[in-house]
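FAQ: What does the model actually see?

It sees only this:
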Amino acid sequence: MAIPDFQSLMMPLLSACADGQAHNNQALRDILARQFGLTEAELATKLPSGRQGVFDNRVAWAKGHLKQAGLIEIAQRGVYRITARGLEVLGENPKTLNIRYLKRFPEYVAFLSGGQNDKPRLVESVSPHSETPDELIAGGYKQLREALAAELLERIKTVSPTRFEELVVELLLKWGMAAHRKTRGTWLEKAEMAASMASSMKTGLVWM
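And it is asked to produce this:
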């Protein structure tokens, strides 16, 4: 099963707190993972940044939205508990619990509009997406890097073989091949080695 988006996690997360007891992050994560039947591979899937799991990130954002709407509260660091409002929402048994539903609460609307300076603003435009803002930012950064790399490659393909050799030598030198004169080989020897590598690479580049 695919990893659920953060809005799909809202109702299950609120329901997991229905007993009125305090639940820590790990307990809530485990409950939701079992409920959605996620595999170890899915739970291990990372954001493009590699710093956090996709599922963990989406659970965190679901908690953040529910908290800002006043449906859950922080009992202590990393521990959450349902509020009276949260119990009322469960009692209504809404068909869907998402950003659109949460907009009925003034505190949540103020939060979306940036009314609380101590919390990061969750831009409303992310609501149609399954990704969290963290995923959208990381994914956009990755796409930008790939686009820049593709453009750079196309530009390099247009230079002369001599200029290409010069570019490779400059790049290797900036990477530090000739930075340490006390290491084995002289600056000239290393530059010559870089030029040799460039010469062997240029033919392959022309035929890419």
